[in-house]
Amino acid sequence: MKLNIALLMAAVAIACSPGQSTEELAVNENLPYNIGNKAVRVYETSKAGTERLATKGTSEFGNAEQPLESEVAVFVNPEKQFQTFIGIGGAITDASAEIFHKLTDDKQKQLLDAYYGDNGIDYTLLRTTIHSCDFSSESYTYIEEGDKELKTFSIDRDKKERIPMIKRAMAQASEPLLFYVSPWSPPAFMKGREHMLQGGKLQPEFYQSWASYYAKFIKAYEAEGMPVWGLTIQNEPMAVQRWESCVYTAEEERDFLKNYLGPTLEKEGLADKNIVVWDHNRDLISQRANTIFGDPEAAKYAWGIGFHWYERWAGGESMWRNLRNVKESFPDKQLLFTEGCIEAFDETQYERWSNAERYGTSMINDFNCGTAGWTDWNILLDHTGGPNHVGNFCFAPVHADTRTNELIFTPSYYYIGHFSKFIRPGARRISTTTSRSHINSTSFLNTDGSIVTVVMNDTEEAITYKMIIGEQQTVLQIPAHGIQTLVY
User: Fold this and answer.
1) The one catalytic residue among 236, 244, 253, 311
2) Residue 430 in contact with residue 31, Cβ under 8 Å?
3) Which among 134, 221, 271, 317 could disulfide-bond with 266, CB atoms 3.0 to 4.6 Å apart, if both were Cys?
4) Are 243 and 184 in contact (CB under 8 A)?
5) What DSSP element (H or E) covers 364?
6) 46 - beta bridge partners?
7) Which helix (H) or strand (E) holds 415?
């Protein structure tokens, strides 16, 4: 497969079309654009093709004609602008860092170039964990067990592999990475348990200690030269997992935020850190938003709400309409996709195309429902789908076979790249709809005036379609099981 992106420009569907508050529109005035009689540059990846993110030439705009009922069309309206885009990226976990440091120098450079270089897919977001998660080789914290006063707090363990990789990613990135952090569980003693696994609850007598723990972590990482943009309160707070986990009801998370975490960050000079609540699936997101954002004293500390995609497998259809509900109900709060990956790893299935299409479908629908940023899970795993200390092996966009020092780029990597390479921070989503349900699309207007439209076809047949923008149109064909990025 050939990654043909040497000519890519730094350019940047209303399936849900959330509204925007008057206040937000006043702050974010419409970006300017100019659609003259210009060509559309086309980049394409398809299941049958041999190239990935390949330049497919240009298509010229002409005068628009009323589409017939039998024709497929994509309608773009740059005058209708919605949320401001903050970035796309992935997580550097202990597992990613451990595998990264097993690679030779040239392979390490190849990986960083592929994710963060302007000749790669140019990530702009980065997530990491506060101490261990399932994608660590073992459970650990930054303090000695029972140290309520946090006197033994130290991130020395992270300085061996994780921090060096994060620093290299930040140095490689074409622009500053938006970096945020998430905990999977408080230390075991703060939950009154012998271990951090299988749920449990933060005990009230340790609320302040745990809030101070976040502040110490942020300050320690920033002292190492890694600016922290924000944090989520708890990864998956309604899941009792066999790995590090901790359960909060909506009321418990609300009260911890407004009575402890928010005030503590303010007191420690960290009031500029963006706090993200929930950090779990779309199914229960509305109740969490109603409870926390409906309380002014809690809401004042929250930048927005994070979500994952795993409800699709737990209960059927992905619940995008819940994102629309949150954005309509609380238009001053932001939506952030904080984690998603393909589970049930199988080393024989690196090229499984449905994995990539799950990414494409989720990203288009999440953005069209008002999502400001999108974060994949592990950026790198090995040929076993790990390491993982509880056997929860998963796919990543890139795998490393440490037996052969080979990097394996899956189709998911290229599908993500069709968004991350072209849509840049500060872009505004613009109105995009399709005339048929078997083709899906979203569009963004970059700050430089360029427009990016992503079109996806997950059917067995090629589709010819018109893209109509005001009084202009162009006619294109997207292959079966294909994705296109159109830049104009």
Assistant:
1) 236
2) no
3) 271
4) yes
5) helix 353-368
6) 482
7) helix 411-420
DSSP state of 6: T
343 has catalytic annotation = no
pLDDT in tens, 183-225: 999 999 999 999 999 999 999 999 999 999 999 999 999 999 9
Active site residue 236: yes
Q: What is the CATH number of domain 2-84+428-487?
A: 2.60.40.1180
Q: Count of H helices and E strands in the chain?
A: 13, 23
Distance CA 414, CA 397 (A): 8
Residues 6+ apart with CB under 8 A from 437: none
Length of the chain: 488
Using CB atoms within 10 Å of the CB of residue 118, give its burial: 0 to 12 exposed, 13 to 18 middle, 19+ buried. middle
**Tens digit of pLDDT for each residue in 177-192?**
999 999 999 999 999 9
Continuous H helices in 188-277? 207-223, 250-256, 262-267
Q: If one looks up domain 87-420 in CATH, what number appears?
A: 3.20.20.80
Domain with CATH 2.60.40.1180 in the chain: 2-84+428-487
Which tokens hold the place of 416?
A: 């993500």
